[in-house]
Structures are given as C-alpha cells and as structure tokens.
Amino acid sequence: MTPPMLPPFLTAVREIIAGGAMWVRSGLWIVGDARPCGNFLRAPLPDGNADVVVSTFGLKTFNAEQHGILTQQVKRLLKPGGAFSWIEASDPKGWIGRPFYRFYMDRVIPLVEKLFLKGAEDFSMVGPYSKRFGNCEGFAQAMRDVGLEVTYRRHFFGCATSVSGRKPVA
Questions:
Q1: Of the candidates 24, 50, 74, 109, which lies 20 to 30 Å from 116 by C-alpha distance?
Q2: Mean pLDDT throughout 85-92?
C-alpha cells in the first residue's frame, strides 16, 4: 500500500527537478509557481496556485507568531486538494537516548561544521533551535485550526517530527 502523501510528494520532486518549483526559504518548496520570492511569510504569490508545499528543517527557526502566519499562507497558497509536508529536527523528550542526541546536536554538529565546513555557520544553531522548538505538535494544531487536514508523526524516537496533510476540497 502506498502512503497517502507519497504520490503528491513524488510529483513535487519531479517538478522540482524539472525546474517547475521555487526555492522560498531554507528547505521550503512551493510547487505550481516558479516566480522568485524572498520571504514566504509575505509571499506575493497568487491564492490557490500551489499543488504542494514541502519544507525540510526550517520550521524550528520560526517563532509562534510566525507559525500562525505560515499556516495562513499555506492555506491561502494551496489549491483545494493540495498537499503539504513538513519535517523538522526535534527534541525527543522522554527518550532514554536523549542525552546522547542532545550532545550530538549541541556539541558534535557545531564542531564538525567548524573543522570541516570552514565555519559555514549553517548548522551551529541546530541544537539550540531544535531544543527551543520541541516538536511539530503545536504547528500541527495551528494547521488544523485554519481548517487543514493534518497528520502528525514522530520519527526516530522523536528526534524528528513531521506534519503532512491536505487542503480540503470545498
């Protein structure tokens, strides 16, 4: 059996590869419109034009107010029946391996970045951001609150969490 989000996701990947998508913010793709946009929270894109919105590892950098704006934008931009999928590094509270995970996120990743990525500073905040963020549960509820159909999932003992779903068709 095919997971419900797989066909839209594969379509999105095909369009991304073909150049039919636009990069909006670190890890965020909007499929269905190829115009450049600098800030997704104020995206001047037409209503109901996106087939799929996909984001990887950028949600933790937004605050609660921005999450609210983000949910409104997703609802506004998606076509009826359009899909969305978000995955985020999370803080696996309650998991016995959490201390090791926190050490990896807070110490190892910044050290690897410093030594091998010449201080790129792209990953040094992943630990603090993921700890402050917690998980995608609050974002999932915010998506439900604006009328989107939502599924929340924990992955790898809660080290990552995801939100996926669709905009209802009328």
A1: 24
A2: 91
